[in-house]
What we know:
This protein is an alpha/beta fold. The chain has eight helices and seven strands.
Amino acid sequence: MSVMVVTGTGTEVGKTVVTAAVAAAALAAGRTVAVLKPAQTGVAPGEPGDVAEVRRLAGPVTGAELARFPEPLAPATAARRAGLAPVGPEEIRRAAAELAASHDLVLVEGAGGLLVRLDEAGSTLADVAGLLDAPVLVVVQAGLGTLNTTALTAEALRARGLRCAGVVIGSWPAEPDLAMRCNLTDLPREAGAPLLGAVPEGAATLPPEDFRAVAAGWLAPELDGTWAGAVPPGSATA
Length: 238
């Protein structure tokens, strides 16, 4: 598995911090890592984007960004409003393949959810995963409502013949409520794929050296981690 696509069940679910955690765990395991952000939206020229945040937290990963649009909108919409060319699936595939030729792991982080439009042709991150024949890691919310959005994303993946590598909870609170604790059992059922970890709420505020030291403990062995329990580290007992 040299390329993995990282998507979410929506916006603000923790894709970037999960990408950073996966990258940090892989680096700690001795692997070389690249992170590709096909379309960065809502960030002005010269400002640090998601790739910079992953590198800040995870350490020495190769970072690549193919397109940047200033307004915080879906990539196709943001490109149209900015009068800029959108980035398409074939361009993303080529960039990921080039990175995969010299890295053990390439993480392709999408914008928003799986079916957010990349261009006016209606291309999505799902098309990118199909061209790359890459597994898709789905970042999900912890609480009430996440089962529905997770099931919808998993159904969309299956309908396109794509493989869900697993799900990771993007922000796990120190004191989870009843729905969150039940979701630890229910999420794998809805996704048809394993729960591969949970990143603690506020993880991005840790000093980078601390983030790197503990990231593997948030993730299952399939993601170069050490987490194997039903309850994420540092949380209340279910």
